[in-house]
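User: Last request for today: this protein with 2-acetamido-2-deoxy-beta-D-glucopyranose, please.
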Amino acid sequence: MRFSLSTLSLATLAIFSSPINAAPHAVDELSWDKAYTKARALVDQMTLDQKVGMVTGVGWSAKNCVGNTYPIHDPYFPSLCLQDGPLGIRFSDNTTAGVAGITAAASFDKDLIYKRGQYMGEESYGKGVNFQLGPSVDIYRSPYAGRGWEGFGEDPYLQGVAGSLTAKGIQSQGVIATGKHYILNNQELNRTSSSSHADERALHEIYVWPYARMVEAGIGSMMCSYNRVDGDYACENDHTINQILKGELGFKGLIMSDWSAHHSTVKSALAGLDMSMPGDITFESGTSWWGSNLTQAVKDGQIPEDRVTDMSVRIAAAWYKMRQDEGFPKSTLESFHRNEAPEVVVSDDHAKIVREIGAASVVLLKNEDNILPLNQDISHLAIIGSDAGPNLDGMNSCPDRGCDKGTLAVGWGSGSVDFPYLVTPKEGIEARVDDSVEVSYTGDDYDIDAVSELAKDADVAIVFSNADSGEQYITVDGNEGDRRNLTLWGNGDNLIQAVADSNENTIVVIHAVGPVLMPWIDHPNIKAVVWPGLPGQESGNSLADVLFGDVNPSGRLPYSIAKKEEDYNVRISPDDEINYLEGLHVGYKHFDAQGIEPLFEFGFGLSYTTFEYSNLKVDGDKDRVTATISIRNTGEVDGAEVAQLYLGFPESANEPPKLLRGFEKVFLKAGKQEKVQFELSKTDLSIWQEGEWIVPQGEYKIYVGASSRDIRQSATLSL
Ligand SMILES: *[C@@H]1O[C@H](CO)[C@@H](O)[C@H](O)[C@H]1NC(C)=O
Ligand SMILES: *[C@@H]1O[C@H](CO)[C@@H](O)[C@H](O)[C@H]1NC(C)=O
Ligand SMILES: *[C@@H]1O[C@H](CO)[C@@H](O)[C@H](O)[C@H]1NC(C)=O
Ligand SMILES: *[C@@H]1O[C@H](CO)[C@@H](O)[C@H](O)[C@H]1NC(C)=O
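Assistant: Here's the final one, the structure of the complex with 2-acetamido-2-deoxy-beta-D-glucopyranose:
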């Protein structure tokens, strides 16, 4: 997908209207070649000490960003500001708290995913952030994984599309995007000591895949992860950094360590690490693996000076590529210290985009008797559950959102942000209904008698619950980052059961980081199940847009929801050696291969209308395959369909039955039909075999449908 500069500039100008905001800024990135020429010319003038300063962070909380490099004076190169995270700016105000990565993925909307990256980049630029520490493309390998919600789900193709569009959006604003966490960092337990082992094929086809797409998109930076890979730390791993990332993928940017994931002076430098973050060995230790240790190692001949030059050139090249030499703003963040910076408001009207993505990402899982959208003659609505209301201690009362109080709109950890405000579901619904509707509410999830009483008298009862997770350094209710179970939190299941027992028009709304078990799903009074994910600050408004039919739901699940816990094949490993025994069978590929019926499959989501698929045509050769299909909106209301293309490889390839290789979201007015086209590149047709990508010979199946299990048309093609 390409975006011309003129389109971007117009879009950006339209967003900026208020005078207190930073100036519009859309950047036409330099090519790597041009950026390298400038970077080499600059770094050639530097002493070894200066180069070392560029590649070493000043230490945790020494300055105002979560990561900062040393400034160089002659020749001039500024101190760079690195700031979390994948969904917006951490430790900040006057910024936007939008939807999480997993929720953006659920939109399956390339345009909105790009716009999300773009507004985040615009905010980072406005605050003087050189590197935004996102997107996260960690594969949701296990539904228990604490940080799965920061990335884009269980499928590498979806991760690759969403990751590269997000990176492009961020970089369109002159901010360097950082793909993370490289690599095989798929659980929180023992994350700084464990060693992950995946076979080379799974490593390439599942885990490296999204990084390869981000490299193609021109991403400036990557972050290596805490864990080890086959024994060596990810930040001193010659195979994954030098050989794969910089070799096979041809990555030209820099790779930085995750915060304190750096464990050596020489080994890391020789393996290809380019920047030590935050620079100190342990936070606030005042010591560093690099800094003067790096200088000494070069002087001792343990590291060629060329390697340090290369680190600096890569950093300067990313900086030039994003044109940060052209008047980039000084950082005005105050993460750790007041710096008397002027208040810089960068949130502008990004709330509109957040509300739009939030609504476009709502997955409708069940809708019997067309109970949704809610019709206008309801006179009494009951809203039930603490997840519909506010955190009574204050929306930002728990550091890095490390608690589960009130409505869940983001997970916890360094990938979270402070809320400027949070529209609760209760507020969003109340704002949408007129005065004639009586709305009653209880946020007490444990007083089942009162809940039943309240639900019984209403025309419709909407019951809310949630399931949270986050990063390992905060434990919430016994969950050390990773989830200790897949059930709803608190008294969720009992609450839902009680409401359904009392009201025959029960609607369930779940805010969750990932899959949950739904023992009540077949209750005849549960007419609808609505799945808004982690919607951010506009939560209640996005939800109301869908509940009342202003927006026809079009979100799709970016992961598989199983009927029972045992149906998942990957748990959190308690061992320090983590073997990725499932190989290629991650997520729906496991369910398909084993013939296990999920409760709701990958790619699933309902609409208020219906769509018909016809006339699939496929054509192509080993370099490119094209598929077209016609889709008609056969229902009464306008709406968007997410057409999904899955590829079935020739049997000899030994792949899982179906792999996502294309999706297009198409908006159709009622009765209208449109042709949708998919293009599969050579990469999309390839598997990793004996050290290279090959297109296996044989008969390919092309499946097009509304989910991974709702295939509407298929065709075969011999390549
Ligand atoms: C900026 O953030 C501060 C701190 O949260 C707040 O007091 C102020 O009102 C915000 N400014 C604007 C213009 O929203
Ligand atoms: C150099 O590295 C060693 C670990 O090998 C560490 O103990 C020491 O503090 C470092 N020196 C400096 C100046 O940070
Ligand atoms: C699962 O974990 C959540 C969060 O810690 C907890 O509220 C819930 O009671 C647990 N469920 C079970 C069945 O133990
Ligand atoms: C890994 O986690 C397990 C389970 O909590 C624990 O028993 C073990 O000590 C951990 N290993 C290390 C090296 O921390």
